[in-house]
Amino acid sequence: MGKQNVIVPDQWVDSMRASSPTHAKAAAVLSGSQEASHDDEYHKWVKQYPSALSNFDDIFAASKGIQIVMFLDYDGTLSPIVDDPDRAFMSDAMREVVRDAARHFPTAIVSGRCRDKVFSFVRLRELYYAGSHGMDIKGPSKTTKHTKAKRKGVLFQPASVFLPMIDEVYKTLLRKTELFPGSSVENNTFSLSVHYRCVDDKILSSLFEMVKSVLEDYPELRRTSGKKVLEIRPSINWDKGKALEFLLESLGFGDRTDVFPVYIGDDCTDEDAFKVLRDRGQGAGILVSDIPKETHASYSLREPAEVKEFLSRLVEWKRLPSSKNKYKDAMS
């Protein structure tokens, strides 16, 4: 996986069809032997990408004496995946644990969503927010001990020139998707998302071909895929990995070795960030998934509930007195 490539038409349609609701429902009707096979595959996979909860102490032993920085995806990581993307609400308990984490470590939300939309879900002013797959970055509006001497007001939008084009495509897709019940188009400001989670499998091919046809007039835009969603964004050398590097630079850790970035995400767009961490030889990439998949992450968590538990343990670990935590100075 890693860097998102433009998928050729036939492969694109086939890959989208394979993740359609009808196929997903059919795949869910498994015999006992098939379920056992899935479990066996997952257990083999998790040996390669071990649980970040089971290996918690090992992960942060590697961060001894250096600064931890947290990067969190939103959908499927801090909130569950839901049929209606406008109702992907974050629980109060999850919000509280993210707030606690941000008290101890610089923390950023990195999402494909519009930055303002993500903020409306999270509602924590002390965080960094990187929306539109990192193409719309803004620093905290609330000063913390981590941002007093930093560029807390940083605003970076590398794809601003594409705004009129994206708005034009949005209006076109909004009109054309009216013919496809269950589909919706989300304007993420610097990117677009065509959601098809609730679209009947019988009309998926026509929906995909329609989107492809619209984009033929806009070669400056590229399409990628996510969980039951088509992503449309500018063809520039920018992604969540680049956003991670930019935020580390903004925090003053760009070329430093005394930093331990932790990135938690669930989708293929997060692979760019996982790959950056691997290439830097720093930190830990944690994939949220309950099915085996190829990844550049080093560890795994099964679902948002485990993300919450991981963050809670991290906060409690920070609070432990030195006599009870041999790695306490890793959090300073």
UniProtKB/TrEMBL annotation:
A Pfam family: Trehalose_PPase
Highest taxon, organism lineage: Eukaryota
GO biological process: trehalose biosynthetic process
GO molecular function terms noted in the UniProt entry: trehalose-phosphatase activity
UniProt keyword annotations, A-Z: Hydrolase, Stress response
Family: Belongs to the trehalose phosphatase family.
Identification of the protein by name: Trehalose 6-phosphate phosphatase
Species annotation: Musa acuminata subsp. malaccensis
Lineage of source species: Eukaryota, Viridiplantae, Streptophyta, Embryophyta, Tracheophyta
